[in-house]
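Record type: monomer structure entry
Structure origin: computed from sequence
Chain ID: A
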Amino acid sequence: MKQTTLAIVLLTVGCSPSDKTAVVAVASASCSTDWPKGDEKLAGGSFVVGAQPELNEEGPPREVEVAPFSIDRTEVTNAQFAEFVEATGYVTIVERAPDPSLYPDVPAEQLKPAALVFAGDDAVGLGNPTDWWRLVEGANWRHPEGPASNLAGRERNPVVQVGHEDALAYARWRGRDLPTEAEWEFAARAGLVDARFEWGNDAPNEAKPRANVWQGIFPVNDAADDGYKARTAPVGCFEPNGFGLYDMTGNVWEWTSDWFADGRPAGDRLRQHLIKGGSFLCADNYCLRYRPAARQGGPPDTGSSHIGFRTVGRRDS
């Protein structure tokens, strides 16, 4: 499926998902049995979005004004997304067969529902991203790593393998929207000015992890000091930021309503929507995007096992 698109995605998505077609064991979470639900109402205001770029796409910083809005306290979970699908019968983008007219150079027998899955066990270094990515037939939100994987024990984990249009459909069902980049970053910074991370400027502490990210050398060894080895964590397992929001960085990338400025014209099917926050695959030696200023483009026509979302509410939505 989508081989021409896949080559672009592999070059642009900096960190990612969790492997093969085996059932993934879920270790016990170091968090309470109840997780924070609902949203936080934020007053908005003027702040600086972006930063002096550590990576080319992050700057220059600019002052913007954000109107009052509310934002989910956590990423949307598998359980929440399942309620949406049960109520509406919605079928996600990766559960549908691709339109042959959009992929004239791909043989018809290859145009089957599939999604991107991380395959770090096969990786030997950073030489070629295709060493640690696979396009897996039958991978979808119910089976994040492929047909033999499932959601047992992961009801509280963020839903993944959802495309931008899937995330937006869920948000609309709730009478909400996806955040703009400015709204998302305002929420992630939680009033901190010029801070490198959502918790401040201190580097991540292995003794007290602040987010679910990759500890060790990506893509060959995740030390899992945060308790989650190359996989998502249940939402709400790490300390909230100053606005009471959880997992704004790390765990999974999050879709926004904005476009990623990659030079493609409006209407181009490969144009990417912006994702923010980094994921459980972001490592200091490669991605380092678990920072509020970090930004990236998401795969335009498939899902991935390290991208999820949260929603916002506005007075006019």
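Annotation 1: The chain has one domain: 1-25+41-317.
Annotation 2: The helical segments are 3-12, 78-88, 164-173, 181-189.
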